[in-house]
Design brief:
This protein has a two-stranded antiparallel ribbon. The N and C termini lie far apart (about 45 Å). Helices cover about 35% and strands about 5% of the residues. It contains six helices and two strands; from the N terminus they run αααββααα.
Length: about 210
């Protein structure tokens, strides 16, 4: 019989202490990649699946390709930080609230339900060993209809927010807002050509974001 103390056994390989706890939430509103946060969420998800067999059974192996599933798990990771990881302050470490960890596991249970409902709606088999994600991402007809309404009301086109590979987002151009009569016509962007250099509106990142880039 193994006499080792169960709770003192080291983790296999390198011990990753708080590797998933040091990253902020994934910036879904930005259109450039955030690979460090994606890696942190992947590490956290693997730990979570090994703790909770229900999560392990319900979460499809391709969850990283589905923005909604990834968003749920990234939110859980950030909530876990607040429930388990002390925060440094001027007066020393501030411990989490005593009820925070209990609330975390309640929310984790609710997240499993949300994951199950999502897979059922999308026709995703959580037990499939592989899945097909070879085609570029597409956007719903309602997305196009909303963009058309924005355009008719004089608003700038809403951008595409790609998560998987998206040729539409890569070619996305932003219509400028209507220019003031006193605007300098020499510096005002031409209609339909506000974004042709393949960057986000503030030119801080690439338009396209892929799973391989995360």
């Amino acid at each position: 019989m193994n006499q080792h103390n169960l709770w003192s056994l080291p983790a296999s390989g390198q011990y990753f202490e708080h590797d998933f706890g040091d990253e902020p939430p994934y910036d879904f509103h930005r259109r450039d990649k955030n690979e460090h946060t994606a890696q942190a969420t992947a590490l956290f998800t693997e730990m979570l699946c090994q703790i909770d067999p229900v999560m392990d059974a319900q979460l499809p192996v391709c969850y990283l390709y589905h923005a909604y599933l990834f968003a749920l798990l990234d939110a859980l990771r950030y909530q876990y930080m607040g429930a388990y990881i002390p925060v440094p302050t001027e007066k020393g470490l501030q411990l989490p609230m005593p009820t925070a960890s209990t609330q975390f596991w309640k929310d984790e249970h609710n997240a499993v339900t949300l994951i199950k409902e999502f897979c059922e709606r999308q026709g995703i088999d959580p037990n499939a060993p592989t899945c097909q994600h070879e085609q570029p991402a597409t956007y719903s007809a309602k997305t196009e209809q909303r963009r058309d309404i924005y355009r008719k009301l004089g608003f700038r086109d809403a951008p595409y927010y790609p998560y998987a590979t998206s040729t539409m987002a890569q070619a996305d151009t932003f219509q400028p807002l209507p220019q003031s009569p006193v605007a300098d016509s020499a510096t005002a962007p031409e209609e339909g050509h506000a974004q042709q250099n393949g960057t986000t509106p503030d030119a801080t990142g690439a338009v396209i974001s892929t799973y391989e880039d995360m």
